[in-house]
Amino acid sequence: MAVKINHKLCNGCGQREKSLCVRVCPGNLLYKNEDNKAEIREKRDCWDCAACVKECLQQAIELYLPAEIGGRGSTLQAEQKKDKIIWQLKKVDGFCEEFEIKTEE
Ligand code: SF4
Ligand code: SF4
């Protein structure tokens, strides 16, 4: 599987020297294009760790889930809050489920 990057939401991480998604990808697969938007170099090399999904403050990155987990075309997205991360599972039929993970006591 791989990630899907929404260029309408990606702001290139503003003034940051190195974008958050670029910084965390363990495979060095992400980079910024000439329009200051994130891109993935080689989708086949993505091992679905979701680090970039979690890190993006713009919710610009979605992870395609394997069909056996969420059904064909389902995606996972994350929204960072002060004390938690909200993971959102979306299926192609419109079904949506959220999971909250606390990050602070
Ligand atoms: S972390 Fe999000 S906003 Fe920043 S460059 Fe990556 S996709 Fe764009
Ligand atoms: S899911 Fe993991 S391996 Fe794939 S692009 Fe994102 S950070 Fe890199």
Helix content: 10-25%
Uncertain ranges: none
The helix tally amounts to: 3
Instruction: Describe the sheet with the most strands.
Output: 5 strands, antiparallel
State the separation between the terminal residues, measured CA to CA.
34 Å
Query: In one word, what is the shape?
Result: globular
Whole-number total of structural domains: 1
Bound molecules: iron/sulfur cluster
Radius of gyration, whole Å? 14 Å
CATH class: Alpha Beta
Number of strands: 7
Proportion of beta-strand residues: 25-35%
- CATH fold field value: Alpha-Beta Plaits
Q: Can you describe this structure?
A:
The chain has three helices and seven strands; from the N terminus they run βαββαβαβββ. With 105 residues, the chain is an alpha+beta fold. The protein has one domain (3-102): Alpha-Beta Plaits (2-Layer Sandwich), CATH 3.30.70. The strands form two sheets. Strands 1-4-5-6-7 form a five-stranded antiparallel beta sheet. The protein has a two-stranded antiparallel ribbon with strand order 2-3. The longest helix is centred in the N-terminal third of the chain and has 5 residues, at 20-24. The radius of gyration is 14 Å and the shape is globular. The mean pLDDT is 94. Residues 3, 24-27, 29-30, 40, 46-52, 63 line the site of one iron/sulfur cluster (SF4).
Q: What layout of secondary structure does this protein have?
A:
Elements: E1 3-5, H1 20-24, E2 30-32, E3 38-40, H2 51-55, E4 61-64, H3 67-70, E5 75-80, E6 84-90, E7 96-102
